[in-house]
């Protein structure tokens, strides 16, 4: 294994693509970014930024688009609101309002047109400035205690190249993800990625190990993305660029490793899983669980399957 620990800088920057239209949540997302939909009382994107900060990444670039101004407002100071809360001596809500603006240095760049995840990442090139960097997708929330991103950063520092998070999914779900062909390494939780296929048919998927929304990318990915033609769906796919890097030597931006993740992941990209996430987070909240959980049990027990729609 090539020792790259002294040739690459430590990851310090996170890129959060947030330019999607959120069509699966219309009409709620007609004027409100899907990233700002609340998980109980905090927008989903704040959990993502908190995860980056917990992993030691205090420089966060949001790749946004039209109608995303509320994301910028959320991570900015709200002086009038703060003053109103201070006048009421409402210290708890004042703390929660200021928390988001003090989390990290948050920067913004616009993705002019929705050309896929690979294009969104390419928009971060100037900000990243030749360093390895993390990419966190706002649709995926990772359990706060999992430490997945920090583990991926450590693997990248040790082995170089790029690192993806892999989670085993059911066979009928492989066509929803980018899937990896893998080889074992000397670490049982780390694999070498030999091939990547974006949303393969179930019968031809290289494995059941699917890429979830966490990446640590070598800066060479930008050069590959510039030369990557539109792939599945007519979009520039990050998976295609990583596939190219997987076959390269360390001095060319390769290889690609995967961290096998078996922890708690919340997929908020569809309505049903979003609702499940809200319920799970509410049940885990000490200030809500004592009243919410008993009510939830009573409500569930009272449902007659025969009365459910559909």
UniProtKB/TrEMBL annotation:
GO terms for molecular function: UTP:glucose-1-phosphate uridylyltransferase activity. Gene3D superfamilies: Spore Coat Polysaccharide Biosynthesis Protein SpsA, Chain A. Residues 13-275 form the Nucleotidyl transferase domain. Its EC number is 2.7.7.9. It catalyses: alpha-D-glucose 1-phosphate + UTP + H(+) = UDP-alpha-D-glucose + diphosphate. Keywords: Nucleotidyltransferase, Transferase. It is an enzyme of class 2 (transferase). NCBIfam families: galU. Belongs to the UDPGP type 2 family. This is UTP--glucose-1-phosphate uridylyltransferase. It comes from Nocardiopsis suaedae.
């Amino acid at each position: 294994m090539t020792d790259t620990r002294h040739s690459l800088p430590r990851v310090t920057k996170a890129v959060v693509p947030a330019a999607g239209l959120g069509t699966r949540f219309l009409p709620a997302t007609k004027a409100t970014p899907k990233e700002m939909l609340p998980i109980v009382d905090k927008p989903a994107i704040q959990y993502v930024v908190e995860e980056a900060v917990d992993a030691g990444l205090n420089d966060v670039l949001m790749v946004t688009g039209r109608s995303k101004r509320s994301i910028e407002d959320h991570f900015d100071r709200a002086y009038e609101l703060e003053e109103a809360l201070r006048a009421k001596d409402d210290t708890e809500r004042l703390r929660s309002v200021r928390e988001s603006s003090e989390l990290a240095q948050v920067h913004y760049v616009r993705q002019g047109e929705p050309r896929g995840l690979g294009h969104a990442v390419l928009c971060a090139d100037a900000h990243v400035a030749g360093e390895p960097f993390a990419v966190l997708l706002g649709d995926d929330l990772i359990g706060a205690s999992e430490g997945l991103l920090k583990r991926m950063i450590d693997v990248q520092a040790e082995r170089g190249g790029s690192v993806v998070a892999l989670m085993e999914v059911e066979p009928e779900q492989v066509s929803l993800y980018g899937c990896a062909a893998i080889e074992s390494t000397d670490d049982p939780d780390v694999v070498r990625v030999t091939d990547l296929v974006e949303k393969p048919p179930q019968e031809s998927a290289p494995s059941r190990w699917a890429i979830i929304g966490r990446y640590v990318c070598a800066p060479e990915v930008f050069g590959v993305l510039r030369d990557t033609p539109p792939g599945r769906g007519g979009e520039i796919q990050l998976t295609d660029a990583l596939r190219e890097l997987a076959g390269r030597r360390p001095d060319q931006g390769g290889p690609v490793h995967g961290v096998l993740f078996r922890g708690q992941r919340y997929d908020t990209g569809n309505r049903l899983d979003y609702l499940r996430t809200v319920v799970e987070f509410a049940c885990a909240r000490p200030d809500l669980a004592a009243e919410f959980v008993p009510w939830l049990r009573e409500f569930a027990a009272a449902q007659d399957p025969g009365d459910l729609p559909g």
